[in-house]
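Internal ticket #5521
Category: modeling
Description: The requester needs a full-assembly model to guide mutagenesis choices. All entity lines are attached below as received. Residue total reported by intake: 244.
Assigned to: D.W.
Attached entities:
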Amino acid sequence: MRINKFLFPLILLVIFLGVIALGMAAGYWQTKGGGYGQEHESLTPAAILTDGRAQRWAGTEARPYQREPSLWQL
Amino acid sequence: MATITKTRPKKRKALQAVALRRIIQAAFVAFALFAGARHLWLGSGPAGAPSFDAYCPFGGVETLFQFITAGAFVRKLHPSNLVVLAATLATALLMGRAFCGWICPLGTVQEWLAQLAQKLTGGRKAWLPIQPPPAVDRPLRVLKYAVLGWVLWSSISAVVPPLEPSFTLN
């Protein structure tokens, strides 16, 4: 079926964003905590301190380094 | 004369439609950059921001088997991946591959690079991007199914997602 070329993107966005909005309304929109717990994640740009802790560049907190280094450390 | 006056508005409308597509594509690329920058700046974890992985529909494909069989997710993928996958499948069902041409930031970047290559190699008579003849193009199109099969098999047989760059490089 052929539709108006200006209507096409509108329908596309309504369907795409509409399904996401439905997912949000149903409570399925979780962008964290799926694959593994959030408490041990340390995948930000970080530097390893001599005592094994990771110091984040963006923040001021230091926490135990328990995950693999991020791309920034390779 | 009558032909010119008839075709001009048509051409203008076609150009407007192309501009609209580029605006929508640029908006999604901007969102991808924003999400990536926010994740880099704020980090992950409870106080951080989600990475762009969380918005990728292919993450939904990667984790689908594990979600169905164990109710769990492969590393770094989340319920939002399944929601975006559902949205992508809904658009594919009703509008074909429009997602790739209008929304996917990766498709947009590929398009921009192809345009750049065309400009750098001579505009309309450019030798890049290479256009394969149909006899070569047709069998090459099968490759994407092989890649899909490999990703699905890897997702089923492995715990970690195969396309996770930080894991692969480690």
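Resolution: model delivered.
Comment from assignee: The first strand of chain A starts at residue 46 and ends at 48.
Ticket closed.
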